Write a sequence for this structure.
């Protein structure tokens, strides 16, 4: 008798905020998890998570503590997380991610008009492979306004990346809206997304909208997105819109995006390798507002580039 075992079997977990409880095993829509955190706790490299329309908070579910500002959705490497389901689909092709809005929200204390108690980061991706996927979500209401430098959460500065914080990862983020996130404080960065890659990491965003995010504070940078590259990889935005983002404060820069290539990196200086590509993207209505030193603040309302050689196509 020949016994064959598939060591790379993929498991799909299901999540539906409308479930009455979180007791299901997540193996079908009928037994779906109520909280995304609970499915993330189960998923390993190669698995998928299908998430039905609704609003999900990082302080709910397996291992989460209510109203904990350090809570976030940490996506495991190699896991593919898809939103936009009605809760009955049998294939990815059946979902409607535009009609079935699936929201990841940092508004953990439920006060929409006051973000002081919101999660520092809504989504975290660290050291993840290019097989890691986040697709079909709205990421909103993250507020990275912790103390600078000393307030470090598991190695992450809590003044960077209110919506998404990616470090040394190569995730594929597709069909997502990153909006209404913020960072606050001196040198705060990446209201919508903070991306810091070393080695060969490179993030790819496709068909995404980054809008209505902000950084506020002296020397704040990258209201929509802050890209810091020490990598040989090339970060890409494809068919994306960056609009209505802002930086506010003395010498703030890059309302829509701040692109920084570290000195000595492959992308550094004139003739360096491209560290960032924007392909068929729309960048509009962003601003970098002057502070009390107007002659030294506010450059790069749309994009501010420092040392790098980005490619715009």
């Amino acid at each position: 008798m020949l016994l064959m075992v598939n060591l790379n079997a993929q498991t799909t977990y299901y999540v539906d905020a409308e479930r009455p409880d979180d007791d299901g095993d997540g193996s079908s829509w009928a037994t779906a998890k109520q909280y995304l955190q609970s499915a993330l706790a189960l998923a390993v490299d190669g698995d998928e998570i299908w998430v039905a329309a609704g609003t999900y908070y990082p302080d709910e579910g397996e291992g989460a503590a209510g109203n904990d500002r350090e809570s976030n959705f940490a996506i495991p490497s190699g896991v593919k997380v898809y939103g936009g389901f009605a809760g009955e689909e049998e294939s990815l092709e059946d979902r409607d991610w535009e009609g079935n809005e699936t929201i990841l929200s940092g508004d953990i204390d439920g006060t929409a008009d006051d973000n002081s108690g919101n999660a520092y980061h809504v989504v975290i991706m660290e050291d993840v492979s290019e097989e890691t996927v986040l697709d079909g979500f709205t990421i909103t209401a993250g507020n990275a306004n912790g103390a600078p430098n000393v307030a470090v959460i598991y190695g992450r500065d809590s003044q960077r990346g209110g919506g998404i914080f990616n470090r040394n990862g190569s995730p594929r983020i597709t069909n997502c809206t990153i909006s209404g996130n913020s960072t606050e404080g001196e040198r705060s960065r990446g209201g919508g997304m903070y991306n810091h890659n070393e080695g060969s990491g490179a993030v790819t965003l496709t068909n995404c909208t980054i809008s209505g995010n902000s950084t506020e504070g002296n020397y704040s940078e990258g209201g929509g997105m802050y890209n810091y590259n020490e990598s040989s990889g090339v970060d890409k935005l494809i068919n994306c819109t960056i609009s209505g983002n802002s930086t506010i404060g003395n010498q703030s820069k890059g309302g829509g995006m701040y692109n920084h290539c570290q000195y000595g990196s492959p992308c550094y200086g004139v003739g360096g390798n491209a560290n960032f590509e924007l392909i068929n993207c729309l960048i509009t209505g962003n601003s970098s507002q002057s502070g009390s030193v107007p002659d030294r603040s506010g450059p790069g309302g749309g994009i501010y580039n420092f040392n790098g050689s980005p490619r715009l196509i």
In short: The CA atoms of residues 133 and 178 lie 15 Å apart. The chain is about 0% helix and 35% strand. The first strand starts at residue 12 and ends at 15.
